[in-house]
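Protocol step 6 of 9: fold each sequence in the batch and record its structure tokens directly after the sequence line. For illustration, a two-sequence batch is reproduced in full.

Sequence one:
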Amino acid sequence: MAGPKWEDLEEDCLVNVLTRVGTESLLYDIPFVCKSWYRVSLDPSCWKIINFQEFVHQPPLADEYLKLIINHSRGNVTSVMLPTSCPDEV
């Protein structure tokens, strides 16, 4: 017996879920699940807290990369957490 499909979940509910998965998953996992998840992953609400401290792999911290991520938030970023060994130029 098949249950409900993730792609049928209301967008606002999915946004609520994606705000909790973390920055690394929002960058490297979620956008590649399906088209609807990619679209929802671009919602500015998902990008309020940008936490590079939780990355399993060393995140690229070039200025342009950070600008791209912050632009995803469309001005909604409330917190950016950088690793303790962060280059001065960042």
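Sequence two, same batch, same settings:
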Amino acid sequence: MSVAGFTMNKNDIRCFLAVSLPDPLREKLGQLIEALSQEVAGVKWVPAKNIHLTLRFFGSVSEEIVENGLVPRIEEVASRYGAMKLRVGRLGVFPQGSRPRVLWVGCDGDIDPLRGFVGDLEKGILGLPLHQEEKEFHAHLTLGRVKNPKLGQPLEKVVDKSSFFLEEELPISSVRLYKSQLSPKGAEYSVIREFFLRS
């Protein structure tokens, strides 16, 4: 298989860059998912332990590219950015309308510097054999994926409920490069490397 003209093999690492969540926020999200699951059927919920703020999905990458390409580039970009703070709050769906596919919690706060980080990262990894990101970065935490496309109207009603609004902080002092392994029980994530932002 190949991406952008580069060949990949079965030993490649499926990886992505993300912000890890503090335990109190993760616990709140787990409670939110539990409450939502009582109101909406046909959604495959993300286990709370697997929720994170994805900055960039890289796809399947060779170990050599990870170590000699991705790691130094992420390290360089991280060294140029200071700590940030987001606020996690409103529920939303992608796409809006009658056939939503993803239920998420949105973020605001230091969004501009975070977008700057992601933009600089995109420039830094140009030329590497990676999955090409076609969508504009939108800071969010995915809670579940819709299995039943006819759930549009019920989901919109749930999203509008103020009782499902969170008001939690998400401090960002580092980003993590994760390895994703698929198993019969679902995706399992392990940290390849952590990159600290400038203090």
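Proceed to step 7 once all outputs are recorded. Observation for sequence two: The chain has a mean pLDDT of 89.
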